[in-house]
Amino acid sequence: MIKKAEHVAIIVTDLERSIAYYRDMFGYKLRLKGQNPVREMAFLYHENQPGFEIELIQDREPQGDYSVKGIVNHLAFTVDNMEEAMNYYRQKGIQFNSEQPQPAPDGGKTIFFYGPDRELLQFVQRNTGTGVEG
């Protein structure tokens, strides 16, 4: 059911500074910026590995110490069909953090769950109509 590792999410304190750092130091390009009521997010990709991204997350209002979850917030995996993947993995014992997937910034779907050591994991079904932006 899993196609590949999708992205790793990193908590940052200055989104624009972090975008510039990964762009200037390592050649990453901005694919998408989005926001919700509490966070701003940016998704960066590298031309040599466009299928794996770095998600940068900045809280609009500081949420306190991140030591409980760490600077690396979660690891995401790509799935083709969210509902099929959720049904398949529920049968394998995964309990998702919500009953239904949430909308992603690109119009796709996401859902979170925990691994065996409470590491935060995520499934992502991308919106196939979204192209890579630079």
At CATH's second level, what is the architecture? Roll
Q: Roughly what fraction of the amino acids lie in strands?
A: 35-45%
User: First CA to last CA: what distance?
Assistant: 29 Å
Strand order of the largest sheet: 2-3-4-1-5-8-7-6
Helix fraction, binned, reads 10-25%
Would you tell me the structural class of the helices and strands?
Answer: alpha+beta
Q: Spans with pLDDT under 50 lasting ≥5 residues?
A: 130-134
Report the strand count.
8
Rounded average pLDDT: 86
CATH class: Alpha Beta
How many helices?
2
What is the radius of gyration? 15 Å
What's the story with the biggest beta sheet?
8 strands, mixed
Keywords: Dioxygenase, Metal-binding, Oxidoreductase
Organism: Paenibacillus naphthalenovorans
Protein name: Glyoxalase/bleomycin resistance protein/dihydroxybiphenyl dioxygenase
GO molecular function: dioxygenase activity; metal ion binding; methylmalonyl-CoA epimerase activity
Keywords:
134 residues; 2,3-Dihydroxybiphenyl 1,2-Dioxygenase, domain 1; 2 helices; alpha+beta; single chain; 8 strands; disordered C terminus; eight-stranded mixed sheet
What does this structure look like?
With 134 residues, the protein is an alpha+beta fold. The chain has one domain: 2,3-Dihydroxybiphenyl 1,2-Dioxygenase, domain 1, CATH 3.10.180. The protein contains 2 helices and 8 strands; from the N terminus they run E-H-E-E-E-E-H-E-E-E. An 8-stranded mixed β-sheet has the order 2-3-4-1-5-8-7-6, covered by helices on one side. It starts with a strand and ends in a 9-residue tail after the last strand.
